[in-house]
Amino acid sequence: MTTTTDQLEQVMAAAAAAAPVWARSTAAERASWLRAAADALDAAADELVPIADRETRLGETRLRGEVGRTTGQLRLFASVVEEGSYLEIIVDDADATAVPPRPELRRMLVPVGPVAVFSASNFPFAFSVAGGDTASALASGAPVVVKAHSGHPELSRRTAEIVAAALEAAGAPAGSLQLVEGREAGNALVQHPAIKAAGFTGSLSGGRALFDLASGRPDPIPFYGELGSVNPVVVTPAAVAARGAELAAGLTGSFTLGVGQFCTKPGVVFVPADAGFEASVAALVPGTTGGPLLTDRITAAFPDGIAHLEADPSVEVIANGTAPDGGAAPIVLATDAAAVTARPETLLEECFGPVTLLVRYSSEDELNAALRVVPGSLTATLHSEPGDDVTGILELLQARAGRVLFAGWPTGVAVTWSQQHGGPWPATTSLHTSVGATAIRRFLRPVAYQSAPQHLLPAPLRDEALPSLPHRRNNTLHLP
Amino acid sequence: MTTTTDQLEQVMAAAAAAAPVWARSTAAERASWLRAAADALDAAADELVPIADRETRLGETRLRGEVGRTTGQLRLFASVVEEGSYLEIIVDDADATAVPPRPELRRMLVPVGPVAVFSASNFPFAFSVAGGDTASALASGAPVVVKAHSGHPELSRRTAEIVAAALEAAGAPAGSLQLVEGREAGNALVQHPAIKAAGFTGSLSGGRALFDLASGRPDPIPFYGELGSVNPVVVTPAAVAARGAELAAGLTGSFTLGVGQFCTKPGVVFVPADAGFEASVAALVPGTTGGPLLTDRITAAFPDGIAHLEADPSVEVIANGTAPDGGAAPIVLATDAAAVTARPETLLEECFGPVTLLVRYSSEDELNAALRVVPGSLTATLHSEPGDDVTGILELLQARAGRVLFAGWPTGVAVTWSQQHGGPWPATTSLHTSVGATAIRRFLRPVAYQSAPQHLLPAPLRDEALPSLPHRRNNTLHLP
Questions:
Q1: Residue A100: its chain B contacts at CB < 8 A?
Q2: Could you state, in order of their start, the residue ranges of all structural domains in chain A?
Q3: Contact B138, B166 (CB under 8 A)
Q4: Which of A196, A412, A418 sits opposite B92 (nearest CB)?
Q5: Most-buried pick from A182, B103, B355, B475 (CB within 10 A)?
Q6: Does domain A232-405 have CATH number 3.40.640.10?
Q7: Of B431, B451, B475, the CB nearest to A405
Q8: Do B420 and A107 touch (CB under 8 A)?
Q9: Beta carbons of A92 and B418 less than 8 Å apart
Q10: C-alpha–C-alpha distance, residues A397 and A395, integer Å
Q11: Do domains A5-227+430-478 and A232-405 have the same CATH topology?
């Protein structure tokens, strides 16, 4: 069901018509629309989960959990809209004594306009039609046009129908959430004059192509892409000595979780040579079971990615798990830090699926040299002990990641105010997160109103509204 | 004095070496460095202003004022660094009762790394070597490499020497502020792997070329460009009736200020046909005096731009001012709303210099149709009376501007917390301001620290620091 050019124009006209209604909507209206979407999705879980399972093979337990994550996300953004700090309100009263005299200026953030969302294969709910990009865009006050992922077309259609109907029933305008399908429609979408920003979660090649289209427009738009991440992990010798078995079990659980199909999967793990950690991992992995991958393309790419790594003379296979018929079996490879430093393009490319690469290092210098060639990542994890001096390692990890973990594993991504899901290129194309409350900033731009009569100001900037909203006035912050 | 490839590599190595020192610097250090730069510039004003006047012909009064604006800007950013809200600190404590359990997460903004600044011709101090882009980048914790504007090379060199020496004397590392010269060096700068973001103020064509280079990198970087703006003004019939003479005087003063060389010059003014406003302007302009333009290129482009407008059959000249030998004389042109609606590419292109285009409208429908084709602008100004229903006009103006004025004229841009100097393309390439305190956000990215031991956290995120910094903890905002 490819969207035709004519259909796309109809979709864009509806989105453009909905945009001013969303922009004008009150916080209470917008929050109620988001909650209506969440309620409708929760109510439809019994219908949607089996469709999702058939199309993605992710299993009912995981998918039911993901519905909850998705509706929780919509409700979080409803509360973000109500709380109002996202408006970044700043008021400077007129100052006749300044040189030159200063007029009154009141600033807040307003929605950029219709947003395109390119959904992901690996989270058919939480990073898809009604996922985080959509929730944050709607919360900002923008209608959304989603490009359905080809990996779950039926789920995308039903989700869009359910959410669009719920939004309209709650009072939102027609055209608030719409779906397009097909690669050509996606390319046209990101170039359409009515689209003012785009969110994307997917591959480096696909994301780069869309980023180039967005940047190449006569009027370039921001393209918030999450493209690829190897999520480096560093384990110190002291950590292996103190809790090697626990760390090996943690790593094994993390890189095989969801059949290795998380953006935050630990893809490259720097381990001390000869500290026995490798043996602990090798002992555990044969007991792991893989499974079917999300799509035929990912299924085909997985052995190719492993073959690409194995072609490097430094790489050896140290452990294999098992898999049911046609599924992907977990696999652990190993190389050394010198090889990574010499050939990062080969050895540090993201490989989607249940595979991780151990990188043996013999000295901190060798480790640091290899860390310097690690590309930007969503996460970086350090397992060390209190006696370790990790200052240098930490500086290198922080410079290339958006989230730095000191315990645990990166595959859990809480949807909170504090979350940062984004990092230097190619992890993301932007200086913002795509998960958590502050993701809303991506779809907003500041507008300042100079010497405006009160009744012509947007409601949140009026004197009567300020006491109930976090704001700055004449250099001082105020809370409700 | 074109920077060679070898020299650029030395510059970039020094910037890269300075970056971690800036990133680690405390708020007190960074603020003292910014103030040292401001003090040194103030102390050198007597030397710098004559150089600036010789190179830009802007006159001593304006240039002395601009030095004050520039050093005030550096000191504002010192206070922004000390205040700390720009760090956007968010702490979520661990929650074992959440499903799934949530680890502790502490988020703040950190500098992106070395920043390239392309300085402007029309503000040789305030948007140049030590101008707003540089001040906000240094404040964020990033070393800066400035591409000097060819219009004031000697001033650029001396300013860079003075500021770099002051920074170093105050304790900042070598390489904190450096200068490169020449178009080729500028192109290489924005593509250099060590540069992580760029700021630019200049022309649409020059800015677009650099934006394309920044976006086309193997690792694209954010390019914050301010490219061009026609700054629409709407005058209602009631406003003309109530204060036509005052408005005509205000417009005449604004479009001729600084010989029309402000980014916020009112370039297109929608006026009621037959309300007499045009005659008021035509009566005043012959009494105005222009002057020399900033550079030979701008001098040559000014008559070309006017000729381009005059070539449109709808355009007529309604008034001319005078100018000393070789200077640009103020000129007012007029057309009608239907022509603008039909040929926006011709009639709504920014023309730098003392020229403005009156656009006659006979109905609100005609006005609205023309407003819909106005490109993104830094400002939009409405002069109306309390009895006017301006809802529709306002919605159109706000959709295409970063600052909406209800009185006065857009040429004054206060450097404050509330300022927004930026707007939809082509006004700027970004969802941020380039003037005022919040400009700092452009050079920062979020990093979240998960389950970090206190001593390994960046200082602002430690428990001991939080009480003195604005922050959010477990959904609640706290002020010092």
A1: 412
A2: 5-227+430-478, 232-405
A3: no
A4: A418
A5: B355
A6: no
A7: B451
A8: yes
A9: yes
A10: 6
A11: no
Distances (CA, A) of A239 to B90, B181, B417, B453: 29, 50, 47, 15
Distance from CA of A431 to the nearest CA of B (A): 5
Catalytic residues of A, by residue number, are: 226, 263
> pLDDT averaged over consecutive 10-residue blocks of chain A (480 residues)?
95 98 97 98 98 95 97 98 98 92 97 98 97 98 98 98 98 98 98 98 96 98 96 97 96 96 96 92 96 92 96 97 93 98 95 97 97 98 96 96 96 95 96 97 98 97 98 97
- Is B47 catalytic? The answer is no
* Tokens representing residue A207 in the block: 């994301």
Amino acid at B211: F
Q: Give me A404's structure tokens.
A: 């730095």
Query: What's the rounded Cα separation, in Å, for the pair A37 and A159?
Result: 10
pLDDT of residue B326: 82
What is the per-residue pLDDT for A274? 85
B85, B408, B426 ranked by CB distance to A103: nearest: B408
Q: pTM for the full model?
A: 0.97
B11-20 CB burial, b ≥16 within 10 A, e <16: bbebbbebbb
Take residue B128 and report the two structure tokens written for it.
């140049």
3-state class (DSSP) for residue A211: helix
Q: Work out the minimum CA distance from A315 to partner chain B, whole angstroms.
A: 27
- Per-residue pLDDT of B323-366, as tens digits, reads 988 899 999 999 999 999 999 999 999 999 999 999 999 999 99
Total CB pairs under 8 A between chain A and B: 200
pLDDT for A369 equals 98
User: Which residues in chain B have their CB less than 8 angstroms from residue A420's CB?
Assistant: 107, 446-448
Q: What is the CATH number of domain A5-227+430-478?
A: 3.40.605.10
